[in-house]
Amino acid sequence: MANFKYYVVWKGYAPGVYDSWEECKQQIEGYQGAQYKSYNSKLSAVNAFREGFKEQKGVLESLADAIDENSGVSRKYLKDSIAVDASCMGNPGLMEYRGVYVKTGEELFRVGPFQDGTNNIGEFLALVHVLAFLKNKGMDNMPIYSDSVNAMLWVRKKKCNTKLERTGRNDKVFELIERAEKWLKTHTWKNPVYKWETKVWGEIPADFGRK
């Protein structure tokens, strides 16, 4: 039987409990003062995560409430937050993305559709869009949720690492990618970006409902 390990990140890009080293590494790599540790059981990891949160300050404290026993993820999420998601009908295909205020379900922005895009690109553009959106409004503390680990990693690296090829029909997609990468390289932000836990919370509020 494989010896699975679970990883707790107390200080990193997105604190939480992760079930693979690769996901944990993405949260701590390049993060100054990162705090993390591995555990042999999900229960031990969850308990350690909750105990560590008692020493933290700020908006993250709310995530320590009510852990789901099966997944080790909090049953609660921050309702005063913005969720982003993308939809792509085909791969590549018709792509669009949007942002939704979680507490009310209000759609804050919706961009697209564009031809010959991908879901990962849409998720990336949605994250950069909401960061710029909140920056313009001076809302530096508003939490953001995304269900895409790839998009979160690309934003941190300030690079859309797509293998999509230009077709002529997707020139607008590549224009948006270039604009997004430029924005990331010329701006700073403080908004915490969290992984939306679909298995526990259901579909992300910004989901397009096309699955």
How would you classify the quaternary structure? single chain
- The geometry reads as globular
Helical content band: 25-40%
Number of strands: 8
**Average pLDDT rating:** 82
Main sheet makeup:
5 strands, mixed
Low-confidence stretches: 53-73
As a whole number of angstroms, the C-alpha radius of gyration is 17 Å
Q: Count of helices?
A: 6
Task: Please list the strands of the largest sheet in the order they lie side by side.
Answer: 6-5-4-7-8
Ends distance:
34 Å
* Structure class: alpha/beta
Helix and strand run: EEHEHEEEHEHHEH
> Which percent range describes the beta-strand content?
15-25%
Structural write-up:
- The protein has a 5-stranded mixed β-sheet, with helices on one face. Strands 2-1-3 form a 3-stranded antiparallel β-sheet, sandwiched between helices.
- Helix 3 crosses helix 5 (171-186).
- Residues 53-73 have low confidence and may be disordered.
- It is an alpha/beta fold and 211 residues long.
- The protein is globular and about 50 Å long.
- The longest helix has 18 residues, at 119-136.
- It has 6 helices and 8 strands; from the N terminus they run ββαβαβββαβααβα.
Key phrases:
single chain, alpha/beta, 3-stranded antiparallel sheet, 6 helices, globular
In short:
This protein is an alpha/beta fold. The chain has helices at residues 21-28, 42-53, 119-136, 149-157, 171-186, 198-201; strands at residues 6-11, 16-18, 35-39, 82-90, 93-101, 107-117, 144-146, 193-195. A five-stranded mixed β-sheet has the order 6-5-4-7-8, covered by helices on one side. It has a three-stranded antiparallel β-sheet with strand order 2-1-3, sandwiched between helices.
